[in-house]
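Task: sequence design from structure.
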């Protein structure tokens, strides 16, 4: 019986759900050997599996058959599973009744379930009841994301119900607590409207002025501008022009900027007016007029940040016209005169790279070194390492291996675990990273100056108990957020975080365990080379080893590379979903999933990729195809995995040097560049752990 129960759990964990259901059914059929409590738990496990298999009606039937005296844990779980089944079947009354039963028993996750009740009631058009439940939820312990959801729900429903004063209070709360600017802009917009409706024009105008001054890129600022003008408020012409520009109302924007140029005595405003008129010409495909305007910006005040942006745009015009010398001069000016400007590193790269493209290796080497020194105080370690590595590579191309090696060693000194240091060590054969030989407790004792101050029992913490209830009750997304709240609760205590990482790992909470272990390093501001292997194995786990071995071996893919990719794509969360329809550990999008399924000769439903065995199989197959298409070079294959093989082929063709370094330099999607670097850095950790042994 124990073997059957264990086998069913392992099959479910790996994503072989049909097989897990069959084994669990066998265990239940032979359940005489189990206690009543253990048999009930097994039957509830079966219900949760039926929900995973999208069989909610069967789950409801199975729940109806579980009767008798249930323990407190089983009663709570029974209620949550009933609620989950009813939600899937679009039965709001049944869902609300089951969730209310859970909340009213003062259960660990009562606050987040109260919020789920509020959301369900709102969806059913029962706004007044939804308000009560949302405000009840706000009286409990909610993860940060759920607290914002509850505030937003209460605010909007109070607004709809005409409860202006209470709605205003909630909108103001949302504006102050949310870190998201779109939340803030939306809240300010409604606050302005409500204050206007209450006859408080001064307060309404204050909200609208905040929108037009601080949120110019948002649609709410456009509405606020119209309301301010309608109310007789005076709005400066520069603000009007910028907002009209974002609205793509270029005639109105140009008129406003001409007014700025004609009336403002502020040099910065004149520069802005000149810049936006030039930008309007550029949007209208009048490059000649735009170029004159950008030159005028620089002429008015060469020290203004908009002068730096103007120079970048003039450089683009020059490149389009085939005038490399003029482009170089613009980039050099930005690099030297505006090192703090956000695009200054880009200017430096492009200035130096033109010499690389011409095959002028020593000139390029000097340019990259000059750029690294110019931006040393502004651009951060990663950019400095990149530029120094390129100087080293250029010396190597010129045959000066000694200087190249010296520069490569400097790259490693800056930050030995960054992508460019890893690349320098590989290209110039500088050796590998060795891990320390310490237990986690010894390491923590050295850093904190004390032995473990307390034996914290993670299982007694309210956030863990709530997460456990939610996970067993089928509310996985809520469980994940509660685990994040648990980690935040422990964030300043490295001993507690370490204990949580171990505890969560033992219970199959791989993603949360990795987050907790990584936070331990964050407490001390250390990188992974300064951490003990035991802690690193929690931060960089190797979950689903049997499935990984099966599919990585079948495709001939390094499992460490695939685990590194999974860490970046989903942080080991098999239920992860992305905004473009990405699903599962390897975050496959629908179109790519269809291609992979065709290549494997199987049929699939996209949501099936929440199964680890299928996600790993798809990821291994697709990664192998990219490796085959790009000379087995991991950096290129990873870029193709992230941005598509078409883009990767374009970058390969545009590279000034063959191989990974030239490819990455040609890569013009910053998000993909960061993706590749992250995965390669992660792979270095996995390989160091493999070298360290078990």
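Answer:
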């Amino acid at each position: 019986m124990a073997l059957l129960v264990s086998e069913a759990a392992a099959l479910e964990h790996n994503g072989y759900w049909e097989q897990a259901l069959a084994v669990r059914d066998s265990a239940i059929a032979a359940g005489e050997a189990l206690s009543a409590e253990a048999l009930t738990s097994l039957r509830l496990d079966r219900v949760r599996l039926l929900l995973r298999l999208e069989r909610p009606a069967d789950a409801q039937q199975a729940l109806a058959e579980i009767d008798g005296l249930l323990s407190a844990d089983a009663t709570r779980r029974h209620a949550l599973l009933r609620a989950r089944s009813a939600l899937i079947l679009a039965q709001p009354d049944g869902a609300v009744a089951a969730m209310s039963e859970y909340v009213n028993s003062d259960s660990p996750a009562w606050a987040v379930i109260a919020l789920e009740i509020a959301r369900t009631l709102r969806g059913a058009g029962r706004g007044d009841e939804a308000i009560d439940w949302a405000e009840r939820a706000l009286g409990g312990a909610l993860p940060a994301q759920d607290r914002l959801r509850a505030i937003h729900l209460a605010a909007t429903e109070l607004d709809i119900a005409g409860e202006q004063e209470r709605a205003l209070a909630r909108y103001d709360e949302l504006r102050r607590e949310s870190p998201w600017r779109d939340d803030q802009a939306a809240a300010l917009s409604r606050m302005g409207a409500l204050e206007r409706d209450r006859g408080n024009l001064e307060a309404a105008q204050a909200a609208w002025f905040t929108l037009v001054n601080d949120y110019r890129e948002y649609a709410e600022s456009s509405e606020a501008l119209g309301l301010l003008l309608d109310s007789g408020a005076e709005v400066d012409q520069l603000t009007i022009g910028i907002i009209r520009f974002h609205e793509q109302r270029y005639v109105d924007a140009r008129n406003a900027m001409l007014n700025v140029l004609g009336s403002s005595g502020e040099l910065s405003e004149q520069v802005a007016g000149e810049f936006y008129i030039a930008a309007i010409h550029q949007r209208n495909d009048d490059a000649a007029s735009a170029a004159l305007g950008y030159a005028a910006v620089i002429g008015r005040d060469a020290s203004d940040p908009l002068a730096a942006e103007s120079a970048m745009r003039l450089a683009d015009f020059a490149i389009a016209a085939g005038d490399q010398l003029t482009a170089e001069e613009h980039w050099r000016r930005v690099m030297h005169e505006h090192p703090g400007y956000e695009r200054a590193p880009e200017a430096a790269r492009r200035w130096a790279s033109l010499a690389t493209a011409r095959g002028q290796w020593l000139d390029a080497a000097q340019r990259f070194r000059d750029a690294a020194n110019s931006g040393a105080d502004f651009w951060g370690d990663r950019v400095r390492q990149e530029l120094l590595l390129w100087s080293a590579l250029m010396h190597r191309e010129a045959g000066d291996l000694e200087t190249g090696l010296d520069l490569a060693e400097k790259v490693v000194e800056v930050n030995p675990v960054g992508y460019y240091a890893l690349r320098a060590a590989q290209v110039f054969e500088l050796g590998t990273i060795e891990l320390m030989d310490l237990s986690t407790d010894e390491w923590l004792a050295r850093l904190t100056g004390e032995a473990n101050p307390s034996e914290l029992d993670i299982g007694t913490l309210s956030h863990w108990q709530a997460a456990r209830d939610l996970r067993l009750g089928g509310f996985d997304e809520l469980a994940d957020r509660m685990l994040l709240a648990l980690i935040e609760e422990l964030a300043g205590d490295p001993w507690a975080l370490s204990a949580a990482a171990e505890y969560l790992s033992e219970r199959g909470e791989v993603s949360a365990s990795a987050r907790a272990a990584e936070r331990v390093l964050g407490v001390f501001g250390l990188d992974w080379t300064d951490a003990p292997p035991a802690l690193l194995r929690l931060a960089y786990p190797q979950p689903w080893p049997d499935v990984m071995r099966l599919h990585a071996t079948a495709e001939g893919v390094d499992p460490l590379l695939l685990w590194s990719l999974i860490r970046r794509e989903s942080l080991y969360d098999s239920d992860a979903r992305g905004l473009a329809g990405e699903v599962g550990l390897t975050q496959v999008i629908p179109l790519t999933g269809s291609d992979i399924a065709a290549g494997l000769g199987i049929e699939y439903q996209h949501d099936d990729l929440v199964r680890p065995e299928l996600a790993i199989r798809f990821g291994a197959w697709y990664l192998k195809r990219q490796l085959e298409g790009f000379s087995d070079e991991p950096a290129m294959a990873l870029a193709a995995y992230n941005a598509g093989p078409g883009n990767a082929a374009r970058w390969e063709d545009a590279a000034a040097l063959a191989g990974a370094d030239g490819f990455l330099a040609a890569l013009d999607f910053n998000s993909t560049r960061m993706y590749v670097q992250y995965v390669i850095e992660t792979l270095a950790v996995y390989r160091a752990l493999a070298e360290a042994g078990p």
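The mean pLDDT is 95.
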